[in-house]
Amino acid sequence: MKAFFREIVVTTILALLIFLAIKVTIGSFIVVGVSMEPSFHDGQRLLVSKVVYRIQEPKRGDVIVFQPVDSKQGDYIKRIIALSGDTVEIKRGAVYINGSRLNEPYIKKPPNYTTKQQKVPENSYFVLGDNRNNSNDSHNGWVVPRQKIVGKGWLSIWPPAIWGPVPEYSLAEQLTSSINSYLAESPLIYIIR
User: Fold this and answer.
1) Is residue 78 annotated as part of the catalytic site, yes or no?
2) Per the residue annotation, which of 49, 78, 135, 138 is the catalytic one?
């Protein structure tokens, strides 16, 4: 009888430890609103890695969940566009990082606004929603401090039709695509070819 109770106690303790480990390392997030369309939709559920940024630094292109700086609303979800020390500018329907235009296949439509060139402060990130013209994000004059980041979008879990990992777009990939599309459209290239 003692062995039976010992097994129950050990199993309960193990289950509790596993539950706490999952709770500390993974969070659940529900997308609210349309600011991240077409990548994420209102009501979509994501799992968020809370520990990834203890192992590595956030990167351009990461989809993050963070506590808003100037609001008591729930957490926000946006895409990191620029890192600490980067310069960012939005003009003529495009985002420029350190003077280079980004090719952004994930956005709904190009931005219909401009921002002056600005340098991202230390330990902060410039974030934008993928639905550029319908998003409260860094183009409104604020950045995300490092300590406000909850975690990185990791896995879409609801609805089942769009289950899977959150797609990633590295800066190198975006810059290469931008250069290739520019070269393909440039009239000088036709003369040289």
Assistant:
1) yes
2) 78
